[in-house]
Design brief:
Shape: globular
Largest sheet: 7 strands, mixed
Helix content: under 10%
Radius of gyration: 14 Å
Order of helices and strands: EEEEEEEEEEE
Oligomer: single chain
Strand content: over 45%
Number of helices: 0
Number of strands: 11
Distance between the termini: 40 Å
């Protein structure tokens, strides 16, 4: 019954900005560590942003200072604000809720395509 529904992916020019949204159904985002991952090719998905249950955040160096993860508890939604986008940011972006115990996830969104090009 859990669903993570992503939106906001589109084409954008280098240097532009984009905000992705992930609406969670069937779970409360405040009960989970939530993250954004991206998949450029193959099966590998790399985490680009994390927000913990307590609200702390973490980013890899590749996006630090450019990407910001946030949440709206009332809307049960996770956001990824992406600024100063580069062509290397082109990927399918996925929302993920980490499982808290055996049988509880992780849960993944369907993915949304972000293409950064001129």
């Amino acid at each position: 019954q859990v669903q993570l529904v992503e939106s906001g992916g589109t084409w954008v020019q280098p240097g532009g900005s984009l905000r992705l949204s992930c609406v969670a159904f069937g779970l409360a985002i405040g009960d989970y560590n939530m993250a954004w991952y991206r998949q450029e090719s193959g099966d590998q998905r790399d985490r680009v942003a994390l927000i913990t249950r307590g609200g702390g955040t973490a980013y890899p160096d590749s996006v630090k200072g450019r990407f910001t993860i946030s949440r709206d508890m009332n809307e049960n939604t996770i956001y990824l604000q992406m600024d100063s986008l580069k062509p290397s940011d082109t990927a399918v972006y996925y929302c993920r809720a980490d499982g808290r115990f055996y049988g509880d996830g992780p849960y993944w969104g369907q993915g949304t395509q972000v293409t950064v090009s001129s």
